[in-house]
Amino acid sequence: MSKVGIIANPVSARDIRRIVSHAGNLPINDRANIVLRLLTGLSAVGVEDVLVMPENGGIRHHLMRSLDRETRMGSSRFPGVSYLDMKVTCTAEDSAEAARQMREEGVGAIVVLGGDGTNRVVVSQCGDIPVAGVSTGTNNAFPEVREPTITGLAVGLAVTAQVPPEHAFCLNKLLEVTINQVRDIALVDVAVVAERFVGARAIWKTESFRDLFVTYGLPEGIGMSSIVGLLAPLDRATPEGRRVCLRPVEQTDWHIAAPIAPGLIKVVGIGSVETLKAGVPYKPGIGAGSIALDGEREITFDDSDDVAIGLRTDAFRTVSVPDCMTYAAQHGVMNRGARHAFRSAQKEEILK
Questions:
Q1: Terminus of the chain with fewer CB atoms < 10 Å: N or C?
Q2: Where are the alpha helices (DSSP H) in the chain?
Q3: What is the pTM of this model?
């Protein structure tokens, strides 16, 4: 029997960018409904046991009420759901602790409801356990936007080995930030900002941006990585990264307008663009400031600190939802009887 973990952040998409850029915010009942759709997909392909992170935001109340109602009605379309035994702190540490416990429990994959920040925390603690992101954050540059039912199906097919691992999972890049031998990570981008304060954490004022390091940047992307996506696009699979040296707009003739948050397009000045090589340490272009990991300021530094930023390839695994569903379609995983009938009908048509 394969287990799947679900970490649903009840407060993702509630940072200051929701105010300054009109970004969306999912109500608690919608988050619970997303979990229910995930469970439907998981159960349909044979997953029987799901571990869920406890929280005090209200998702658990809505979820268990719906599951109890289904049980009373005699429905069996959901797997068994149990909650981890852990203290709820209402901080990012909850996601970290849940990922650690799920790793120890040997789950086949962890589904993460959140944005870039939540996924970053989970990846930092999940080890070799594959993750699958469901977009419920502000900037969702890392988790792909997709119907949760399909994500549930794909994750279930992967963990039950109905899709072979070479098709089900893929390896991903990340950025490592080291300050005085203390390490942190980012999944998509590291931004170096001139101000030495954390403040509201989420970054949206571009005037003080000085350096940008990304693992990938897509032309249709959102967030800081969209700058790379519009300058020198880079996909998730290519084993290199990008660095963009940023300048105040009035100090350069090279400008670009980029969507750095939902509903927020900013003009930024570009100094230079270069390729990041894996395993090479890079220094920030300024001696003092703060560092934002996947859109949130986490670290301050000054001239006395030893700061290095580097790219690591093949760093963690994700469930490849498109590849899982393509394999299932091509090999009749979901509809063997119908597939056989279809092939027979094709053969008869050819023989006519």
A1: C
A2: 17-20, 28-44, 59-72, 92-105, 116-125, 148-159, 165-168, 225-231, 321-330, 336-351
A3: 0.89
In terms of domains, do 207 and 258 share one? yes
Q: Alpha carbon 198 to chain centroid distance? A: 22
Residues 54 and 195 in one domain: no
- Tokens encoding 160: 């039950």
Q: Which domain holds residue 215?
A: 173-314
β-bridge partners, 190: 213, 293
Percent of the chain at pLDDT exceeding 70:
88
Question: Which tens digit of pLDDT belongs to each residue from 29-43?
Answer: 999 999 999 999 999
* 352 found inside a domain: no
**pLDDT by residue (tens digit) across 181-205?**
899 999 999 999 988 766 555 666 7
Cα–Cα distance between 231 and 32 in angstroms, integer?
38
351 lies in a domain?
Answer: no
Q: How far apart are CA 303 and CA 288, in angstroms?
A: 6
Mean pLDDT along residues 165-185? 96
CATH of the domain at 113: 3.40.50
Please indicate, yes or no, whether residues 15 and 159 belong to a single structural domain of this protein. Answer: yes
The yes-or-no verdict on residue 349 having pLDDT over 60 is no
Contact 234/228 with Cβ under 8 angstroms? yes
C-alpha dist (Å) from residue 230 to 17, 70, 183, 302, 326: 22, 47, 30, 31, 29
Q: Are 113 and 86 in contact (CB under 8 A)?
A: no
DSSP 249: G
